[in-house]
ABC transporter substrate-binding protein
Amino acid sequence: MRIISLVPSVTFSLLDLGLPVGQLVGRTKFCISPKNLLSSCPVVGGTKSLKLEVIARLTPDLILANKEENTKEEIEALAKDFNVWTSEVSSLEDNSKFLLELGHRIGRSTNAQSFAKEIESIFDRPWEQKQMATYLIWQNPLMAAGGDTFISDVLNSLNIPNALGTKKRYPTLENNDLDEIPNILLSSEPYPFSENHRIQMQNRYQKSNLVLCDGQAFSWHGTFPRHCREYYRRFTQQLL
C-alpha cells in the first residue's frame, strides 16, 4: 500500500504503529518526526499548501488528511482522483476510534488497540484538580483553544478546567480577557511561545501563573499522547 500523510501527528502515528517506512510515499514539510525515518520520504507541500501535481505523480493508494489541518478545497480536489480519508478528532474518545480505524486501514489493528488502551489508562488515573486555565495558541492576535477542541478535552481529562470551555474552536481574545485566569498556558505550537514571551507576559499578568507547554502533548492526536504520561505528570505539578 502506498500512503501519503498530510498531517504531522498522523505521520508520526503511522510509523509508531509499525507501518513499513517504504509504504509512506509522501508527507508534508511539517511531518518531521521521527526524523530518522522520514529523511528520505518525499515532501508534498505544507498542510494547507499542498502540491497536488506532486501527490498525483506519487500515485497513492490512500491519502490521510484531517479536517482541521488541511483545507477543504485541496482535499476535495484530491478526492476526485484518490482514496482520501479525512479524519476529525475533537476528543480523546474520537482519538480512540481514530486509532482503531487507522490500525484497521494499515493492517496494524493489534498495535492500534494496544496504543488506544495505553492512552486511555493515562487519563483514567485520578489527576489532581487544578484551577482554570487558558491555553494560548497564538500571540498577535491572542488566540486560544475553545471547548470543542482536542486540546480542551486533554486539559479537562487532566483535571484542568478550560476557562474557554463554552467557546467554539479557537477564539480571538483581548488582553483583559486573561486578567482573572489562574493558569495561562503558552503553547510551543503553532505559535512558538518561548521563555522570553513568558517573562514579558508575566509582567502584564502578575496575578496569573504562566506556564510554557509542549504543543504536541496537547494537540497531536493519534499515538502521541501515549508517550506523554511522564510529561503530563511534570506539567500538572507546575499549575495552581
User: Anything to note?
Assistant: The chain has a mean pLDDT of 97. The domain at 133-236 is CATH 3.40.50.1980 (Rossmann fold). The chain has two domains: 3-88, 133-236. The two ends are 48 Å apart (CA to CA).
